[in-house]
Amino acid sequence: MSDARVERILGAVACIVLALIAGMVVFVFEKAWPSFAHNGLAWFGGGGDVDLQLEDIFNSPANPSDYVYTLHAWPLLWGTFVVTAGAVLIGIVFSLLAAIFIVEFAPARINRVLEPVVRLLAAVPSVVYGLIGILLIVPFVGNHLISVERQESVANVVQLDGACLGVGVLILTVMIVPIMIAIVVDALRAVPGGWTEGAAALGVNRWRVIWTISVRTARPAIVAAAVLATARALGEAIMLSMVAGSASFAPNPIDGLTFLFEPTRPLASALVENVEGLSVVPFGETLFAFAAILLVSSMFLSLAGFAAKQPMRKYGVQP
Amino acid sequence: MSRNRPLAIAAAAALATLLIAAPAAAATITMSGSTSVAPLATKLAKAFVKLPKYRGKVKFVILQGGSDIGITDVSRGRVTLGMSSRDPKPADPGGIVFNKFARDAVCVVTHRSNPIATLSQSQIQDIFSGRIRSWSQVPGASASGPIDLVVRTAASGTQDAFQNIFMGQTLRVAGSATTKASNGLQAQTIKSDPNAIGYASFHFTKGLHDVPYQGVPCTLRNAKSGQYAGTRNFFLVSRGAAAGIAKQFIAFARSNPTAKRIVASNWVPLR
Fold first, then answer.
1. I need a labelling partner for B43 at 20 to 30 A (CA). Which of A25, A279, B104, B141 fits?
2. Overall domain count for chain A
3. A84 touches chain B (CB under 8 A)
């Protein structure tokens, strides 16, 4: 095949992908529009109970002009944010330390086991984590870690049955850390040997070389790892729906330790749990509104990742 | 070439099945919908194709997905019959007919360590609407501490049945309740939480304590005799009045003695 033809074919394929993405965005927003239009900015606010609102939407009357759309989705948005941010922040610390160990300290024979295991863990389907969570961790937390006094102290607002924010964040962290480790390890390996050797020759100790040369150089890769992990965490639905409580409640940080035991439900979980009702027109449009929010946040995520990498480009190692 | 081999085999296999199926020229009934109805519908379909009159002349394709999926599919003409475990709703698409063909018991369930002797309708309403939030306020409960409500999402047929049978039109399940997306998840949650209470189709209550309702235990026998009040309807939904082979299948499911025996094995036949 001639070069020119190859170029045209590849160009066409790339254009199809772009057209698909554009088409998807238009489709989702067109479907989601009535939900946003009826609620205005109150869609993003709090007030009332999301589960009851969803039920009202589901039981709308038949006449299209009487459709119920009222929804205040703040608990879902806040739940998505807290779970994702919690898992990614803990994940960054863990994966950075683990990657430094693998690249700088671990003997070769440990690495021969460690690295394949990390890559294998990155590929475990999320529903497996969900099953482990619901069969082992949730009952343990519910029956042993949450005292009856703690349950009774908030019983009028929310029930603490073990499925909670803390378990969700914990399992989500376990899920995303392997991907982050794999990316950061590759970046640390790509740091030019001359830079670290130069620093070492100047008498800098090993930890400082790692911290000021290797990790600094690998920053764009760390950002890339965080962006990828956030994207996976945002879209995680099944596992969180199983272990994070499935109650539309916005956990309140002022509650102290109880905060970790409060249930929550991120957007993606709310979407997958209610997908059965897609056929009821206003309910379906509400679900598409959830999808639209997820779509927009992942777009902004990519942009934010790109922007964060800009100042680091000069000395950075691109992943 | 070697990379394409699985594809080639699959294509050949598909072609082969087409050829085998084609000469039979069987009428096909496609169904989709409620996961609660599907096990019963599958058994009935197996019995139907064994009838001498229909042997080799009809075949079934049964898909699951939830009552609402079945109702939408049939209203758009994607399937012959939709399976629904909930009653018709005002917002359902027009032009479809709900054909009742069996009934099913919905039990209130608790953890095995909390064998409550009986609950009245008003007690169930108080518990699920959140007016009573502690087991100490429920006579006969051996659990202590707060009550954990475990219910189903709005789109579930079982949730709809529970609302209609136990809660009535005005009361609602408390917003603090944990909502689960499937029967299995709900049962698992109740199994691992001694303080939990929920509800489930009779089919899914293994390993849980069935709470007698108004003093009547939630058993198949009581549901059949009509003593147990917590029953709901199973429907086969057709687009317009059912016709042809679909009509014959619905008639079979409703009144054929073999079909009645199948229904009675785990569900409640129509009276």
1. A279
2. 1
3. no
